Amino acid sequence: MEAASGTTPASVASLELKTRRAQFQPQTSTVATRRRQAVCVRRAFKKYGPKSNPNIILDGLNMTVPKGTIYGLLGASGCGKTTLLSCIVGRRRLNSGEIWVLGGRPGSKGSGVPGPRVGYMPQEIALYGEFSIRETFLFFGWCAGMTTSEIDERLEFLLKLLQLPSENRFVKNLSGGQQRRVSFASALLADPELLILDEPTVGVDPVLRQSIWDHLVNITKDGNKTIIITTHYIEETRQAGIIGLMRSGKFLAEESPTKLMALHGLDTLEEVFLKLSKRQNMGLRRRSSILSSVTGVPPEVDIDDEMSGEFGDNVSISSRRRSVAVTDDEHVPELPPEEKGGNSTFKMMDPQHMKALIWKNFLWMWRNVGIMAFIIGLPVVQIILFCLSIGKDPVGLKLAIVNNELNNSMEHCVPTVGCDTSRLSCRFLKHLEKRTVVFLPYDTAEEAKYAVTRGWAWGAINFPANYSDSLMERIELGKDVDDYSLLYSDMNVSMDMSNQQIGQLLQRDLLYSYQDFAREVIVACNYSSKLASLPLDFKTPIYGTEQPNFTDFAAPGIILTIIFFLSVALTSGAMLLERNEGLLERSLVSGITGTEILFGQVVTQFVVMIGQTVMVLIFAFAVFKITCEGDIGWVTTLTILTGLCGMCFEIVLFRIRRGLFLRERKECYIHGNGFLLTNCYALWNYLAS
Ligand SMILES: Nc1ncnc2c1ncn2[C@@H]1O[C@H](COP(=O)(O)OP(=O)(O)OP(=O)(O)O)[C@@H](O)[C@H]1O
């Protein structure tokens, strides 16, 4: 093949040398030169992982993409193409080195990158499945600052170009290839100066692939548009102006495809790569030392560096070779200082962006009515369950009764079975019985106490044998009563106070029953003059009722807890959804800021939270009649504010988790969740107290 094409090993070596020299000769760099370059990367160094065991992805890489060209970025899977592209669009930062994109540093004020000057198609589909094609275009178009009519115009053109189905079809109902084309069209939509396409032709048939390339060639014709494209189909990069072959964090070659093929005397790029692979397998140690002796430049040797991976679907490389030194940092020109001002697209809050984000969030909710019904219905279900099952006063609380006045016979002990009402003990028990207490009769005080110790009863009441007579004497004589009557007019109560709630409830019932009983006895015996001498008299409560129920007491805490934690969950879910499958990446590259995304989420989640709050309050106060003594307006406001606190709480946690995530993935979850748990626990304690 080489002979046929008239190339000899010597001519190949000399041509290769010339190319390399020309490529890495000292250049006289000026700002004007840089401005002619769409992308310029110098001494890029990027690593992942901890310092102790770094995974070096870019290792002093230099890349030059002239304006108006198609640049094919090729390399084995996992060699760092996506990482490099992320750095170019300003989504990742280099550890060291410099990147200039369209005359500015990505991410800096005034660079316009990220922003509408760059169109980015990530490797993932990165689209909202619930949106139609037109809605997808509207969202990305508005993000790029286009008007609706401009978007519709482009939509028509792109539908035809990419042979897409009706604009009303939902993305989730499209085939994988169609979804990729919609993703590609979204990147083309705003007609950006720089298009960065990460594997746009995966899953696209050869005919359509050709028409996509024709379009790419067409849009770069006037020299104003630049395209960087990664692909696993090597042959299609034949139409690229330059291809860059990445390996071990550097470029092995950065050359036009025709020159590369001529250099190796081969007809296809695939053959070139196969040849390179074979050379690598044979070991280029010897060749590199020859080159070194000719040029006098010692090669950067990386003997143990191993390359393995695939180039596309057909070609695979697995070789051990010396990496020929293709970069010479001393000869790489310095980049000019960053220009101030310029074509600034950097804004904190762009109304158009906010419109796009809020519209997108509400549209997503509308398309996911089931999820939204669940989100709004969940707190309602919680409050219904609470009102139905929690908070009612317990009934059927058992009390052990020893009534020595009644010869301890079972039937006489239980008031409902016909107690002797001439006995005051029985009269008291009748009042107590009204308060839904169940009596367990016992013969002796020891048996009753034993029942309490075994948990069969919550308390034991013991009436002395002459309780009625002693009590009457005590009422009649007042302070002149003798010690005997004083002692035997007391009923003895022993309580199980292990459950504070039940213990206090029983004590309250005993107290109220005794009050009613005392009134009845005094009136019945005509001791009205003694009424004033009752030791205790509960007046009508200032707030609440004489018998407040536990539901009223617990309801505010429960309502606030439900709203707070559901707001946390709601915000967390929305944030996770936003990060889903490169969508956040894509939105951020289109120029939307993190603050705008956050604000958009706060606005939409706030509306949902208001819906939740209103529904919960309607069920609590209107349906289940929970007592509300105060102003319902203030109750609603305070509940909404609690929900807002929950949202802010999650946003802060999310940002902390993200910050930790960027530093150390593993630690993030430990710290973030630990922080969440600690705070939830503290909050719970606060609410409970
Ligand atoms: N956030 C990250 N944290 C740690 N390692 C990462 C991260 N992102 C990528 N990597 C690693 O960096 C290397 C380069 O990944 P990258 O996605 O840039 O490769 P690629 O060339 O685009 O691969 P492909 O062609 O398969 O898409 C891979 O080994 C990958 O596992």
Automatic annotation (TrEMBL):
GO CC terms: membrane
Transmembrane parts of this sequence: 369-391, 553-577, 598-626, 632-656
Highest taxon, organism lineage: Eukaryota
One Gene Ontology term of the molecular function aspect: ABC-type transporter activity
Compositionally skewed regions (Basic and acidic residues) per UniProt: 328-341
Membrane topology category: Multi-pass membrane protein
Domain ABC transporter span(s) in chain numbering: 39-273
UniProt keyword annotations, A-Z: ATP-binding, Membrane, Nucleotide-binding, Transmembrane, Transmembrane helix
Location relative to the cell: Membrane
Any matching Pfam family: ABC_tran
InterPro entries hit by this protein: AAA+_ATPase, ABC2_TM, ABC_transporter-like_ATP-bd, ABC_transporter-like_CS, P-loop_NTPase
Residue numbers spanned by region Disordered: 326-345
Protein name: ABC transporter G family member 23 isoform X2
Natural source organism: Cephus cinctus (Wheat stem sawfly)
Gene: LOC107274604
